[in-house]
Design brief:
Layout lengths: L2 H23 L3 H5 L9 H20 L16 H21 L2 H5 L1 E5 L5 E5 H23 L11 H13 L4
Antiparallel strand pairs: 1-2
Helix pairs in contact: 1-4, 1-6, 3-4, 3-6
Length: 173
């Protein structure tokens, strides 16, 4: 995998999150918070979990404390605040990935888990996990959204790539 691969995923990630969050904004607050059959209990809980994990991983990659204490932590109970934090985190992810070159991808990241256990993982796999984790839980939130009156938006990577290509070529046909 190349730095360009991860740069594309960073931009896709931000695109997909913006689409999903825009759909969630059409929900009544009670539907957004409603307990559902899901690992993190609700759309709110699921979207918070993704942000929690991103902050933990970016803290490790940047060598700064993340402030994360648990994977089920609710960082923001309000959708507007969660959306602003998500947008900022996506910009942070993009900036981090844009700084990485092939040499960075080949190095090992030494870090501690939330339980305090030291781990060593190649950066290429940390970034792969970061984006795969996002896709996994974004899909769960998408599924939970389908249980509401708001239609979940298409989030497939191919739609992003086609849209990006149309933006480059000016071809919107």
């Amino acid at each position: 995998m190349t730095p360009e691969h991860f740069r594309t995923f960073a931009r896709y990630n931000a695109w997909a999150n913006a689409r999903l969050y825009a759909a969630c904004a059409a929900l009544p607050d009670a539907e957004f918070r409603k307990p559902r059959q899901a690992f993190f209990g609700s759309i709110l809980g699921t979207l918070n979990h993704v942000l929690v994990a991103d902050r933990a991983w970016l803290g490790r990659l940047e060598g700064v404390p993340s402030g994360i204490t648990g994977l089920d932590q609710i960082l923001y109970g309000d959708l507007a605040e969660l959306t602003a934090a998500r947008t900022a985190e996506d910009a942070r992810i993009t900036a981090l990935v844009d700084r990485h070159d092939a040499g960075d991808l080949g190095r090992d990241l030494v870090y501690r888990t939330l339980a305090g256990t030291e781990q060593r993982t190649p950066v290429v796999w940390v970034l792969s996990h970061l984006f795969n984790h996002q896709t996994h839980h974004r899909g769960q939130a998408h599924g939970l959204l389908s249980q509401t009156a708001v239609a979940p938006p298409p989030l497939d990577l191919i739609y992003f790539l086609r849209e990006r290509e149309a933006d480059v070529t000016g071809d919107r046909a």
